[in-house]
Design goal:
There is one protein chain. By secondary structure, the protein is mostly beta strands. It has five domains: 211 residues, no CATH class; 106 residues, Immunoglobulin-like; 147 residues, CalX-beta domain (Immunoglobulin-like); 128 residues, Immunoglobulin-like (Sandwich); 223 residues, Immunoglobulin-like (Sandwich), CATH 2.60.40.
Length: 861
């Protein structure tokens, strides 16, 4: 069905008018078209407004009768079909009253007939531009609601403080649909054809008799008058405007001594002079404002003026203080309200520099490896947000960054708000930041090197200079933000310290003088095996020169050569802690044995730190006193015993000799000497070496000596002396004494002779003996040698010993020989006798001498 104009022409060719789903299709007259067009332009908007207590109805037509033309509303989204799907904008004009300061719009109530979900829209107040909506002067907040299809009034509220409207001025309430989730959503704003306003309106307030619309929401220049003269139904709430006072800084920050200026503004000019109450507050913790300028104050905004400037004088002083805010607050008063910005502050910048001082907390020089502690201190503690960068420099003749390192000292309560940077450069930086930052405690460590600096080297630490020059305090690269900046102290701005070469303590070992102890030719302190005053032990002093500043651990080695008196657990490398006195001692003990032992040399030697067995460092070893030694002398004598190997010799037969072994109790070491005096005797008349007859030698046998490291003297006498001299091979221990008959010598009888060879009783007093315990005679200190006569015809038997003594589990030997060749076999049976003879075994127990073996002695064990 087409819609025709009065001449029968179609208004919308090719378009069909379809009803909304809840309306039946019908033919629409031209008069009805106007009503429908008005309804199609209606826009449904919703907003809740919390109306202030003082708000009242300024103007309303919401109680007027709904239009009875067509649908009775203007669409917000979607028309009845002849337009197709559209979004609409609807605007209802109104004019304010004549109150001199204008009005504050609090809310707008709008009556809707229907509002589906999914429609997006805005609600605003606009000024008038050629009887059309112009510039937005305020927006209204939308309420939350559920979709509805029956009449409902929704409230749209202004922000706190409302929207300020001028007197006698036309404005528009504008609802713009901006989008929809589909083409089936619809909303309608109720209209009325009444030109009246509801009773109770504010004086002079009116609502336009017609509204305007647009069919493409958001386009500001296509507003159209409604075909059917009608008004959109609404109610405007608010009140006559009272000036609202706000305050703002004119300029911030400003330097102390200059005025802090505030702009005090009203949003609507008063018709008469307006007195405003104020309060001036100085900065917390600061003193920029004279007390007479603080507290309650007043100022006047002149009639028809919108603002005035209030000035707070500040004081210029010479005190370094944090920047602070001077605050101006608008207090409640008569004839005005407080605006949202009723308090403002101006930052006052202090123009007095924060002075930075530098102080060395120690005294005197330091040694390489030592530390230099110093402080960097601000003239006052910082507050939150403040930063001061302090440039330092570390310098000196020949000093480089390799000669030192810099760090903050650690510990509770130290270096609050302090950070250190640039420590690998000659110009490090100390940053103080935040509340309570004031003192930096720093530690400079003098790095030890191998360079010898005679007299040491001087390291100078100083603050950077004032100004913007190299390393200056005022360089823009620094982050200092305190009002007056920062300056170095005029005098406490540097210090110097001498760094001496590292003196590595020298470790020495020494035996203190002990009563009764002396040193031998090798410089060793001599102790008897039983010890001196403290038993079998020696105390060695362990010293460091110079004394360490703290206890220092060193390594020493305990060793023993020669004897074996020191326990193995006591030998080897051990650590010793040397106190700050520079010296301590260690004791080395040994065992006093009852045996004849070699002397011991007990040495304590300092161990260099580079030795793999030592993990300690920080000292050197003395080249001349790196060790000392004790000679522990044995106090047990070296026993000398004799043993026969062939104890029969034949008279006149120089080839038939007797041999005796002289044995020491132990082998001698190099340098040890034992003198063994011997004595020859005979009770049977044998003529001994040295015997003479009429001035001529008249001895039956000669004596000779052989053996490694053995010499002999007096062998042509009855008192020969053997001298054993030790050497490095430790083989000097035995000698052989050979008795050889003088060839052809015959004593003229037929009896055998017995020669006794013994160790002289005077062996212990021999001055040539050097072994510590001296020498003594063993129990086997003598032997008997048979000098068999060559004139006998029988088988006389000779024995090498008349008596043998045996120890339990021990053994002894002697020899049996015939003095002459027998005329027949001689059978010999050997038996045992005596108190303990049953405990002894004899081998062999018998023997037969024949003409073939008569001259071969038999050894009996």
């Amino acid at each position: 069905m087409s819609i025709l104009d009065g001449a029968g022409m179609s208004l919308f060719p090719g378009r069909r008018v379809s009803a909304w789903p809840d309306f039946p299709s019908r033919l629409v007259s031209v008069g009805l078209i106007r009503s429908l067009a008005a309804l199609l332009r209606a826009l449904v908007l919703v907003a809740w407004l919390v109306v202030p207590v003082e708000a009242a109805v300024l103007v309303s037509n919401i109680d007027q009768t709904d239009s009875d033309s067509g649908l009775g509303y203007s669409p917000v989204a979607r028309d009845f079909g002849f337009y197709g799907y559209r979004l609409f904008g609807n605007a209802q004009g109104f004019t304010t009253g004549s109150h001199g300061t204008g009005y504050r719009l609090a809310s707008v109530e709008i009556e809707f007939s229907r509002f589906d979900a999914g429609i997006e829209y805005t609600v605003s107040i606009r000024d008038s531009s050629g009887d059309e909506p112009g510039t937005v002067v305020g927006t209204l907040n939308k309420p939350t609601f559920s979709a509805f299809s029956q009449d409902k009034v929704l409230t749209f509220s202004a922000a706190e403080g409302g929207i300020l409207l001028s007197a006698d001025t036309k404005y528009f309430v504008v609802v713009d649909a901006t989008s929809s989730t589909g083409e089936d959503q619809a909303a309608g704003w109720r209209i009325t054809e009444s030109d009246d306003e509801d009773s109770g309106a504010a004086t002079g307030w009116t609502i336009d008799n017609e509204h305007v619309y647009r069919t493409n929401s958001g386009d500001d220049n296509d507003w159209n008058a409604n075909l059917l003269p009608s008004s959109l139904k609404l109610r405007i709430n608010g009140a006559a405007a009272i000036p609202r006072v706000t305050v703002a800084p004119v300029s911030s920050p400003v330097t102390e001594g200059l005025a802090a200026e505030f702009a005090v503004t009203v949003d609507t000019a008063p018709s008469s002079n307006l007195m405003v109450k104020l309060n001036v507050a100085d900065a917390s913790g600061g003193d920029f404002v004279d007390s007479g300028n603080e507290g309650e104050k007043t100022m006047t905004i002149m009639a028809n003026a919108s603002s005035a400037t209030y000035r707070v004088s500040t004081m210029a002083d010479s005190m370094d203080e944090p920047d602070g805010e001077v605050t101006l607050t608008v207090n409640a008063g008569t004839g005005y309200e407080l605006g949202s910005a009723s308090t403002a502050s101006v930052m006052l910048s202090d123009d007095d520099a924060t002075v930075v001082s530098l102080a060395y907390t120690g005294t005197g020089p330091v040694t390489e490896g030592g530390t230099v502690e110093f402080t960097v201190t601000l003239g006052r503690a910082l507050v939150a947000g403040e930063i001061i960068d302090v440039p330092l420099s570390v310098s000196g003749m020949g000093v480089t960054t390799a000669d030192w390192s810099l760090a903050t000292k650690t510990g509770a309560g130290l270096n609050t708000g302090v950070t250190l940077s640039g420590t690998n450069t000659a110009m490090p930086n100390v940053r103080f930041s935040g509340a309570d930052a004031q003192t930096a405690t720093l530690v400079l460590t003098a790095v030890a090197d191998d360079v010898s600096e005679t007299g040491g080297e001087t390291v100078t630490v100083e603050l950077g200079p004032d100004g913007t020059g190299t390393n200056g305090f005022d360089r823009t690269a620094l982050s200092t933000n305190v009002g007056g900046g920062a300056d170095p102290h005029a005098t406490s701005d540097e210090f110097s310290v001498t760094v001496n070469d590292l003196v590595v303590p020298e470790l020495s070992i020494a035996l203190p003088a002990v009563e009764g102890a002396s040193r031998n030719a090798l410089g060793r302190q001599v102790h008897g095996e039983a010890g001196l005053h403290g038993g079998p032990a020696a105390s060695f002093d362990v010293s460091l020169t110079p004394a360490p500043s703290a206890a220092q651990t060193v390594c020493v080695r305990v060793s023993e050569t020669g004897g074996d008196r020191v326990a193995a657990a006591s030998e080897g490398v051990r650590t010793v802690s040397v106190p700050t006195t520079g010296s301590t001692s260690i004791s080395v003990g040994w065992t006093d044995t009852a045996a004849d032992d070699i002397d011991s040399v007990v040495t304590v030697a300092a161990v260099v730190p580079s030795d793999p067995s030592c993990s300690q460092t920080g000292y050197t070893v003395s080249a001349t006193a790196g060790s000392d030694a004790v000679l522990v002398t044995d106090d047990d004598p070296t026993a000398v015993r004799l043993a026969g190997t062939d104890l029969v010799m034949f008279e006149g037969d120089a080839s038939d000799t007797a041999a005796v072994t002289v044995m020491l109790g132990r082998a001698l070491l190099a340098g040890e000497i034992v003198e063994v005096p011997l004595q020859l005797s005979s009770t049977t008349g044998a003529r001994l070496p040295g015997s003479t007859d009429g001035g001529n030698a008249d001895h039956d046998f000669t004596v000779s000596v052989s053996g490694t490291g053995v010499t002999a003297s007096g062998t042509d006498t009855a008192d020969p002396v053997l001298t054993f001299t030790g050497h490095g091979t430790d083989t000097v221990q035995e000698a052989t004494v050979t008795l050889a008959p003088v060839a052809g010598r015959d004593d003229g009888d037929t009896a055998n002779e017995v020669v006794t060879l013994q160790v002289s009783p005077g062996i212990g007093s021999r001055t040539g003996t050097t072994v510590s315990g001296g020498a003594s005679r063993h129990a086997d200190f003598q032997v008997n040698v048979v000098l068999a006569d060559d004139d006998g015809g029988g088988a006389d038997i000779g024995f090498s010993a008349g008596e043998l003594r045996l120890l339990e589990t021990g053994s002894a030997v002697y020899t049996v020989a015939l003095a002459a060749q027998p005329t027949a076999d001689v059978d010999m049976t050997i038996t045992r006798g005596g108190m303990h003879s049953s405990a002894a075994a004899i081998n062999p127990s018998s023997h037969t001498f024949t003409s073939g073996n008569w001259n071969e002695p038999v050894t009996v064990t």
